[in-house]
Design a protein that fits this description.
- By secondary structure, this protein is mostly helical.
- It has 2 domains: 5-48, no CATH class; 57-156, no CATH class.
- Helix content is 63%, strand content 6%.
- It has 5 helices and 2 strands.
- The chain has helices spanning 5-30, 57-85, 105-124, 129-141, 143-156, and strands at 33-37, 44-48.
- β1 (33-37) and β2 form a beta hairpin.
């Protein structure tokens, strides 16, 4: 009698690997981890992505309040930096230390103080830095969320009559 246990064993092993790999990939995607290949091999980077995130009306209102307060602080800081530098300041991104490079000590102090103040304002609004940044990122890609934020900002401003 001839038995064919070997082909079934190979098929079983292939299917097991297939389901294992797909399960791990699905867990990674659901967990927000997506591998990104770099142009410089052999580097492999993992990034977190929020695919569909909704925010409550309260969070949007808190975000709008924080944005208005941060913008007021930004205008003051911009004017001070322009005065110190004698020209328009370069773009400053709080979480990118390279954007502070080339600033004088006084200008750097102003920029760092603004970044610390912005973080404090965001946290005092009732949002964590992570939620504040998540709303900022989501609003860049979600036109509906952006409109909700704009409406919330308009509700904060007194009527000009």
């Amino acid at each position: 009698m001839i038995t064919c246990s070997r082909p079934f064993h190979d098929l079983n092993r292939v299917l097991s690997r297939f389901f294992l790999v797909n399960s791990l990939a699905l867990l990674g995607i659901c967990g927000g981890l997506i591998p990104q290949a770099s142009l410089r091999p052999p580097a492999l980077f993992f990034s977190h992505f929020a695919y569909s995130q909704s925010f409550s009306d309260t969070q949007i209102k808190q975000y709008a309040q924080a944005v208005v307060a941060i913008e007021a602080s930004r205008k003051i800081t911009y004017d001070k930096l322009q005065s110190v530098l004698g020209k328009a300041p370069p773009p400053i991104i709080c979480n990118q230390k390279d954007s502070f490079r080339g600033l004088s000590r006084e200008a750097r102090t102003l920029a760092v103080n603004f970044c610390n103040e912005s973080k404090r304002i965001a946290e005092q609004s009732g949002l964590t830095s992570q939620v504040f940044n998540a709303i900022t990122q989501a609003a860049r890609q979600d036109a509906n969320l952006k409109k909700q934020i704009q409406r919330a900002i308009l509700r904060l401003k007194p009527n000009d009559k």
